[in-house]
């Protein structure tokens, strides 16, 4: 439960101040910037939660604006920080850019939004589309305000009634990001999958959707046997539209969706994965030059193709005179990143590609392997998931009985995907052919 919400400039001067409970003097905000500076000096970084004299300051920064909420209660910090993120999202939706100038130009609308988004310190309506139905850009003009939409007064605050489409469609994307760290020998040191199910909903009325996945826990709890692979998801987080009680009782994902684009759920899987794109590297350091050989391997099924592959290989910051030769794609030296980037538009599963690079080194230096950055890889593989998660069904029920078309797509892409490089070979022990 928040006591007050402030929007501050970079010097800590209040641009907007909204007191909800009156239990904290507004002058308490004057201690925010000194307290933040003290913590940054002690910790080396600013903490999102600060406390002094029984007052808790929760904050986030967006460009040249601080969004701060104060409380004396034993409040849920994550709830208040989430509210600040929603407030940031709403203001950005209204003004396109959340910065000091846009706040000064629209303070009347901001006070109206704060009154609707929070009541006596308790978050209420935080969906931009619902707020935009009755708080418009012209709301500072003295006009008769339109009636609040039904979404504000009923239990489904994220969707308005009366939505109509000529063609009813649902697009569902299962997007998995692979986080991985690989040592120079090609062994995986750490790996996990961060997944998200994203939807675009263009449905009339107030539809009820039910989504079924090959969820291992669901099959075990019901005593059923999965026809294929079952996946055990961890750290599941849902959009507020999902009926959590229904999911907890029988693992059914049932919901009335928002209109348009939203993220239905996220999940994580800890799994020992093999690298989808493996890069083997050989480095030779000589007096006045350094040479690289990079072999890229697409270690997934031949019927799949990785699109937009980018392999960034770090080089010494003073390297110059680059020369490249590759069997596929294009290579570019990017001096501001101290790396060369190998781009492969399409990399088919089971294929290999080879790159050789040569750089001049004007200075002699000792290469510290602990400080040598790893190779980073970007890619996107459509129609493919590493975890094996599958949408078993997506049912759409609406009282008018219309037919809707569901479309499902699977995408695997890189997350924090890094491969450590070996120590440079001693000249003469692994002689690379000249370019």
UniProtKB/TrEMBL annotation:
List the signal peptide residues. none
Known Gene3D superfamilies for this protein? 3.30.450.60, Mu homology domain, subdomain B
Q: What is its main location?
A: membrane
What is a biological process (GO) this protein takes part in?
A: intracellular protein transport
Q: Name one GO cellular component term.
A: clathrin-coated vesicle membrane
Give the record's keywords alphabetically.
Cytoplasmic vesicle, Membrane, Protein transport, Transport
Q: Which domain of life is it from?
A: Eukaryota
User: Mind telling me which CDD domains this protein's record contains?
Assistant: AP-1_Mu1_Cterm (cd09250), AP1_Mu_N (cd14835)
Q: Where in the cell is it found?
A: Cytoplasmic vesicle, Clathrin-coated vesicle membrane
Family matches, as InterPro entries: Adaptor_comp_med_subunit (IPR050431), AP2_Mu_C_sf (IPR036168), AP_mu_sigma_su (IPR022775), Clathrin_mu (IPR001392), Clathrin_mu_CS (IPR018240), Longin-like_dom_sf (IPR011012), MHD (IPR028565)
Keyword field contains Membrane: yes
Which residue ranges does the record assign to the MHD domain? 167-420
Kindly give the PANTHER family that the UniProt entry links to this protein. AP COMPLEX SUBUNIT MU (PTHR10529)
Family classification = Belongs to the adaptor complexes medium subunit family.
What name is this protein filed under?
AP-1 adaptor complex mu subunit Apm1
The species this protein belongs to is Coemansia biformis
């Amino acid at each position: 439960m928040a006591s007050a919400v402030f929007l501050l400039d970079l010097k800590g001067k209040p641009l907007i101040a909204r007191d909800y409970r009156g239990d904290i003097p507004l002058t308490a905000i004057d201690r925010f910037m000194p307290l933040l500076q003290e913590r940054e000096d002690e910790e080396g970084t600013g903490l999102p939660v600060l406390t002094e004299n029984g007052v808790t300051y929760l904050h986030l920064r967006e460009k040249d604006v601080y969004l701060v909420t104060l409380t004396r209660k034993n409040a849920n910090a994550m709830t208040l920080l989430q509210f600040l993120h929603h407030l940031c999202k709403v203001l950005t939706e209204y003004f396109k850019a959340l910065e000091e100038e846009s706040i000064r130009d629209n303070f009347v609308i901001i006070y109206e939004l704060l009154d609707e988004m929070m009541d006596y310190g308790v978050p209420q309506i935080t969906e931009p589309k619902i707020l935009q139905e009755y708080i418009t850009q012209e709301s500072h003009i003295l006009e008769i305000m339109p009636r609040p939409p039904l979404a504000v007064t009923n239990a489904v605050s994220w969707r308005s009634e009366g939505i109509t489409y000529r063609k009813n469609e649902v697009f569902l994307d299962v997007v998995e990001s692979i986080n991985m760290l690989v040592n120079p020998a090609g062994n995986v040191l750490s790996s996990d999958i961060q997944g998200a199910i994203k939807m675009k909903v263009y449905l009339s009325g107030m539809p009820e959707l039910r989504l079924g996945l090959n969820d291992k826990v669901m099959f075990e709890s019901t005593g059923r046997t999965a026809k294929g692979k079952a996946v055990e998801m961890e750290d599941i987080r849902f959009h507020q539209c999902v009926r959590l009680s229904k999911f907890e009782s029988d693992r059914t994902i049932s919901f009335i969706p928002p209109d348009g684009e939203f993220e239905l759920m996220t999940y994580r899987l800890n799994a020992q994965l093999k690298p989808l794109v493996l890069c083997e590297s050989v480095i030779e350091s000589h007096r006045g030059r350094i040479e690289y050989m990079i072999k890229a391997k697409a270690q997934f099924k031949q019927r799949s193709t990785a699109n937009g592959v980018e392999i960034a290989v770090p080089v010494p910051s003073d390297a110059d005179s680059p020369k490249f030769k590759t069997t596929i794609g294009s290579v570019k030296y990017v001096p501001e990143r101290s790396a060369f980037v190998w781009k492969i538009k399409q990399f088919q599963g089971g294929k290999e590609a080879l790159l050789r690079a040569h750089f001049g080194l004007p200075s002699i230096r000792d290469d510290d392997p602990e400080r040598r950055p790893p190779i980073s890889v970007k890619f996107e593989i459509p129609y493919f998931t590493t975890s094996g998660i599958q949408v078993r069904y997506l049912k759409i029920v609406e009282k008018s009985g219309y037919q809707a078309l569901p479309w499902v797509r699977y995408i695997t892409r890189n997350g924090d995907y890094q491969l450590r490089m070996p120590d440079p070979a001693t000249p003469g022990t692994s002689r690379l052919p000249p370019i």
